[in-house]
């Protein structure tokens, strides 16, 4: 089979996305893996998302037989990518061609990090990454809960960020170990990206916690949920999660999603108690020098 490979920038057009979804559906039926999550297909038509897609077509049938998506979600030149090849076209070297084009694009874009995402059950994919110089870095669980029409009463007020920069930086430093500079960059990114909303949890005017919601199509995602250590165990996270589920309902979403590292037992327990259930387990593999 002769293959042509091309690279397109995000956002992609709807026709290309439909081709990707057809390929993913066939691959998922065989592999039992949620490739839509790994490849971020619901976001690829988003004008605010930075990155690119690599597409492999059969010259004979003009069918899409392989795809790789690379996303620079925070515009920091840290690219997260994943790929899938049509089951009937595997063992033809398509994966190698996708990776060769990936490397070329990372070099052109001056990428600082190259991070591969693979499902925890995809042993072949993990082996392939290991043989190409990638090393395991961490594992994340994706969880989902239903949107809720009722917001639970709470002593904490959840409001959009206004001018609480210094207090929020302290929370981010305390909760995540961020530097002041990293916290400032994160705040600026969340405020400047239209589909993101930065929220604060307060009590008597004091900022105790924070989270950001990200809206794309029929989904609402929770990210960056953190609580100051002095306020942990008092229900701040519960208040933020309750607000997010209610906000999802108001926006017409049926579910709300979040990711949590597998070794974060405390956060995982909190999310479970608030009705979140595990739907995927993703492994992250990192190559320190993307130019190698």
What are its keywords?
single chain, 35% strand, 292 residues, 12-stranded mixed β-sheet, elongated, alpha+beta, 8 helices
Description:
The chain has 8 helices and 12 strands. It is elongated. Strands 1-2-3-4-5-12-6-11-10-9-8-7 form a 12-stranded mixed beta sheet, sandwiched between helices. It is 33% helix and 35% strand. The model has no long low-confidence stretch (mean pLDDT 94). The protein has 292 residues and is of the alpha+beta class.
SSE layout and pairing:
Blueprint: E1 3-9, H1 14-31, H2 35-39, E2 50-58, E3 64-72, E4 78-85, H3 94-108, E5 113-119, H4 123-131, E6 135-146, E7 157-160, H5 165-176, H6 180-192, E8 196-203, E9 206-216, E10 219-227, H7 236-250, E11 255-261, H8 265-273, E12 277-287
Parallel strand pairs: 4-5, 10-11
Antiparallel strand pairs: 1-2, 2-3, 3-4, 5-12, 6-11, 6-12, 7-8, 8-9, 9-10
